[in-house]
């Protein structure tokens, strides 16, 4: 190891020659412990030799410009190995210095490298160091590091030599012949490759074995000749000094001449570029920083203030951006509410250096957690700092506002994407279409579907059905038929869901004949209706009060094995309630309970409306009590039906109480029902109960 190290500093780089001639002063005195220097730099003289022409050291000599350079000698195998060793060693030891002192400038680190080289030379050649002033002492840990780096470099070179030698045996005749034989017997692929490497290693070990035997034989013969006196034993001369290097040092790595000064500039640019490309690793959190982190984890995100604890964490760890990101990940796994507060706080932290992506990630996390106001606050903070939302942020905003049901802001974010010349994908289009559908504007959703088709995006079946469901719910038959035709042109065959929605559209529009026509087409195509489809068909007949046709339809379906479910029974109960056929409706409910089916919310709404209109206050209030327990899942039309029935049954106090609940949920009554409720309150109950007899006696 000492031999290698002595050769290393005998063949040091031109950079070290330059630094030796013009030593760079270190800006601050430094005391190194562990893998560091143990003397301060002010002990080192800035001008170790007043004579710049010659240096007292026989190992580092200045390059004179007056004398012509010596012609480069032919590079021997030993010089090639040594050049490779020097290149790897200097690279490794420079990395150790950079790792210990990442904040120091490059020139300062080069000066430290020069000091290390001088100390190694002084230890290897005390005679040369006697004429020079005493060098700065190095710690034992630093010497250990130098020896460890030398050992690792030697091991890496040994592995490379083994690989190169193994590569030769992979292509030797014996191994090729064995591979051909293996291929003939059917061995292929990875197994053959493994066998080839195995045979090459065995061949290399065999050659090494016989080579070692030959060396042992020659050594034994030499010792025998020395005993017989055939060979004179001469003392090995003691090496008191290393020869001076003449000419320019040549570094070659993979055929490139690294001694050219341009590579120094390239390495500096690469070092700067790696800071942006290669991600840094977070520092280990131990000791004081670990205790501070434990305190952070125990904080209450609502009551406690995170700023002083974060300031203490920064001082304990000298935290950078990568350290803050690692801390955020650990906080998110521990407490999500604390993560939101910590992430917002770090947006104002200078050492965190927030980017546009940090804002978009936090906005996305807020939107997925349903924290729309917090997401908007983060967006406003982003705009206040002059950071404009990028494409990713706009996509997050589209999804967030679509989920929140804010059509205007969804459109604004979508237009922002178009201004950035971004081609929206299926997820973005789906979110915007959902916003239009939830706002009751399926026509604009259909327009976006056309736009997708023009741009080569194939909408999936779910998007078509989403718009078709909106048309069907509003009774817009023309729009529903256009969507069905568009689906067929797109190669999507009609299924039960599309037929069911088309029948529902005609049912809402009050056209039972067209609904029955599509129902029969579905039956002829081999698609059996489900309970919801039959309910839509019965509802279409119920709007026209065609009870006989509805009964015929149910009897026909019953012959084919269909049994009415909760949806069909709910429609029939509502229909019977309007006809005041209380016993028939109760019979259907009883049959549903006997079949083990749970009475649905729609059935309870129909029962409450029926009992109210029939004047059965006791049963009406029983059904109303059940509905009040499930008021959070009731829809606007269901509220209106119950209120209308209560007004018709003169249960005005109950009607007003349910109307207040309806307003709290954000629903409004239609004008006709609202006027009826106000009028019923102004008419006394006893006057409305009087029967008015016509003048004609009827």
UniProtKB/TrEMBL annotation:
Which parts of the sequence are annotated with region: Disordered? 42-78
What positions does the domain PROP1-like PPR occupy? 447-576
What keywords does the record list, in alphabetical order?
Repeat
From which residue to which does any coiled coil extend? none
Question: Which Gene3D superfamilies would you find in this protein's record?
Answer: Tetratricopeptide repeat domain
Q: Has keyword 4Fe-4S? A: no
What's the superkingdom here?
A: Eukaryota
Q: Where are the PPR repeats?
A: 355-389, 390-424, 425-459, 495-529, 530-564
The yes or no answer to whether the keyword Membrane is present is no
Q: Where is the composition biased (Polar residues)?
A: 43-54
What is the name of this protein? Pentatricopeptide repeat-containing protein
Origin species, per record, is: Dendrobium catenatum
């Amino acid at each position: 190891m000492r031999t290698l190290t002595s050769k290393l500093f005998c063949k040091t780089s031109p950079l070290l020659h330059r630094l030796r001639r013009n030593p760079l002063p270190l800006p601050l005195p430094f005391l190194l412990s562990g893998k560091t220097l143990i003397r301060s730099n002010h002990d080192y003289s800035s001008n170790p030799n007043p004579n710049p022409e010659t240096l007292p050291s026989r190992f580092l000599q200045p390059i004179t410009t007056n004398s012509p350079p010596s012609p480069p000698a032919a590079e021997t195998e030993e010089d090639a190995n040594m050049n490779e060793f020097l290149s790897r060693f200097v690279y490794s030891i420079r990395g150790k210095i950079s790792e210990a002192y990442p904040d120091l400038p490059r020139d300062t680190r080069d000066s430290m490298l020069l000091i290390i080289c001088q100390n190694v030379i002084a230890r290897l050649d005390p005679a040369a160091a006697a004429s020079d002033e005493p060098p700065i002492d190095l710690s034992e840990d630093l010497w250990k590091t130098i020896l460890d780096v030398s050992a690792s470099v030697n091991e890496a070179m040994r592995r490379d030599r083994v690989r190169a030698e193994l590569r030769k045996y992979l292509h030797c005749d014996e191994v090729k012949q064995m591979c051909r034989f293996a291929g003939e017997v059917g061995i292929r692929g990875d197994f053959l490759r493994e066998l080839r490497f195995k045979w090459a290693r065995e061949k290399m070990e065999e050659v090494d074995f016989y080579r070692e035997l030959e060396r042992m034989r020659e050594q034994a013969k030499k010792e025998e000749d020395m005993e017989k006196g055939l060979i004179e034993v001469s003392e090995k001369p003691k090496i008191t000094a290393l020869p001076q290097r003449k000419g320019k040092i040549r570094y070659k790595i993979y055929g490139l001449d690294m001694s050219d000064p341009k590579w120094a500039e390239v390495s500096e640019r690469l070092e700067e570029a790696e800071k942006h490309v290669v991600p840094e690793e977070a520092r280990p959190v131990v000791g004081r920083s670990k205790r501070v982190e434990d305190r952070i984890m125990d904080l209450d995100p609502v009551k406690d203030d995170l700023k002083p604890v974060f300031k203490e964490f920064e001082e304990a760890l000298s935290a950078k951006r990568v350290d803050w990101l690692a801390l955020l990940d650990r906080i998110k796994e521990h407490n999500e509410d604390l993560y939101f507060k910590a992430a917002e706080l770090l947006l104002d932290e200078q050492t965190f250096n927030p980017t546009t992506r940090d804002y978009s990630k936090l906005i996305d996390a807020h939107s997925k957690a349903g924290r729309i106001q917090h997401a908007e606050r983060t967006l406003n903070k982003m705009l206040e700092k002059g950071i404009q939302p990028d494409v990713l942020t706009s996509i997050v905003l589209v999804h967030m506002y679509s989920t929140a049901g804010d059509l205007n802001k969804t459109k604004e974010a979508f237009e922002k994407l178009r201004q950035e010349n971004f081609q929206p994908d299926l997820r973005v289009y789906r979110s915007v279409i959902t916003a239009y559908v939830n706002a009751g504007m399926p026509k604009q959703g259909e327009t976006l579907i056309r736009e997708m088709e023009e741009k080569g995006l194939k909408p999936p079946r779910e998007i078509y059905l989403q718009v078709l469901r909106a048309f069907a719910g509003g009774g817009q038959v023309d729009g529903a038929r256009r969507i069905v035709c568009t689906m067929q042109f797109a190669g999507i065959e009609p299924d039960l869901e599309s037929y069911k929605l088309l029948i529902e559209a005609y049912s809402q529009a009050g056209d039972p004949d067209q609904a029955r026509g599509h129902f029969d087409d579905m039956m002829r195509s081999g698609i059996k209706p489900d309970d919801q489809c039959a309910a839509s068909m019965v509802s279409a007949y119920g709007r026209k009060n065609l009870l006989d046709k509805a009964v015929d339809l149910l009897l026909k379906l019953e012959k084919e094995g269909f049994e009415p479910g909760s949806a069909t029974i709910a429609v029939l109960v509502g229909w019977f309630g309007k006809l005041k056929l209380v016993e028939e409706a109760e019979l259907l409910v009883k049959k549903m309970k006997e079949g083990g089916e749970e009475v649905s919310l729609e059935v309870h709404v129909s029962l409450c409306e029926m009992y109210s209109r029939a004047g059965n206050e006791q049963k009406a209030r029983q059904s109303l009590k059940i509905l009040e327990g499930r008021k959070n899942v009731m829809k606007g039309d269901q509220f209106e039906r119950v209120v209308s029935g209560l007004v018709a049954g003169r249960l005005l106090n109950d009607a007003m109480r349910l109307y207040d609940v309806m307003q709290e949920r954000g629903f409004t009554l239609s004008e006709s029902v609202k006027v009826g409720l106000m009028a019923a309150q102004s008419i006394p109950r006893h006057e409305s109960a009087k029967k008015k007899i016509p003048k004609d006696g009827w």
